[in-house]
Write a structure and sequence with these properties.
By secondary structure, the chain is α/β, with parallel strands linked by helices. The protein has one domain: Undecaprenyl pyrophosphate synthetase (3-Layer(aba) Sandwich). The protein has nine helices and six strands. The structure holds 3-methylbut-3-enyl trihydrogen diphosphate and magnesium ion (MG).
Length: about 260
């Protein structure tokens, strides 16, 4: 079993800028409702926000952006809405993939392929293949993703390796386990942002969020843009990240 090299928490960026930002894109439905529009128009406006945010991120020192587009729980929405959400990657890649490719963005879609149409799987695999060589910026799109399912699948794969005699239970540590997740190879998120006023993770990056700062913003995703991202970064910069340790001054005081 090849566990991808995953940077550990020691690899977190120095200073006050997050290397990896993750965003729960939320509030599309409420945005549409406020305007008396059908929900699909909220989702389409949300694609514009994604476009704005991806454009702004590299200039703000961000190297990795992971966005939550469709959760495994979203299948319980009405069929028409699910169909609209399933059409969003195509809508986004049709207009943006060429530019992402040229600008050095590596695109990965994390989540289960089962349940997606063959066309969508092809579209996703093509986007990944076309941008696989890029190194300027990393865009991870969580689509048909659920963190508990991802963690469970990783545990199952490791158990199968043990059952087959290729691994010993004592081989497993946090670094190896992280390498079995869909986010293998990405640094852990430093900052997780959720707009729309909701304050929960909703099954997003549960393992990876161990030391992430959480910022909740009272803006609906279709209204999100560079100024909101900058505000989230300012809040991040004001946080005191200690990774369970104590700050240098307190070490001196304790000594
Ligand atoms: C985000 O907007 C899109 C997805 C979760 C797929 P919502 O559709 O959740 O919008 P609200 O929460 O109803 O406003
Ligand atoms: Mg929502």
């Amino acid at each position: 079993m090849a566990a991808a090299e995953t940077p550990t928490f020691a690899g977190a960026p120095e200073g006050s800028r997050p290397l990896h930002v993750a965003i729960v894109m939320d509030g599309n439905g409420r945005w549409a409702k406020q305007r008396g529009l059908p929900r699909p128009l909220g989702h389409r406006a949300g694609v514009e926000s994604l476009r704005r945010t991806v454009s702004a991120a590299p200039g703000l020192g961000i190297g990795w952006l992971t966005v939550f587009g469709f959760s495994t729980e979203n299948w319980s929405r009405p069929a028409a809405e699910v169909a609209e959400l399933m059409a969003l990657p195509k809508r986004y890649f049709e207009t943006d993939l060429g530019r992402l490719e040229r600008e050095g963005v590596r695109v990965r879609v994390i989540g289960q392929r089962e349940g997606l149409s063959q066309d969508l799987v092809r579209l996703v695999e093509d986007a990944q293949a076309r941008t696989a060589h890029n190194t300027v910026f990393n865009l991870n799109i969580a689509f048909n993703y659920g963190s508990q399912a991802d963690i469970t699948a990783a545990a199952r794969r490791f158990a199968e390796e043990v059952a087959a005699g290729r691994r010993d239970p004592s081989d497993l540590d946090e670094t190896m386990f992280a390498g079995l997740l869909a986010t293998a190879g990405a640094p852990p998120p430093d900052l997780i942002v959720r707009p729309s006023g909701e304050q929960r993770l909703s099954n997003f990056l549960l393992w990876e969020a161990a030391y992430a700062e959480l910022v909740f913003q009272d803006v609906l995703w279709p209204d999100y843009g560079e100024e909101h991202l900058k505000a989230a970064l300012a809040e991040f910069a004001a946080r005191d990240r200690r990774y369970g340790a104590i700050v240098a001054d307190d070490v001196l005081a304790a000594g």
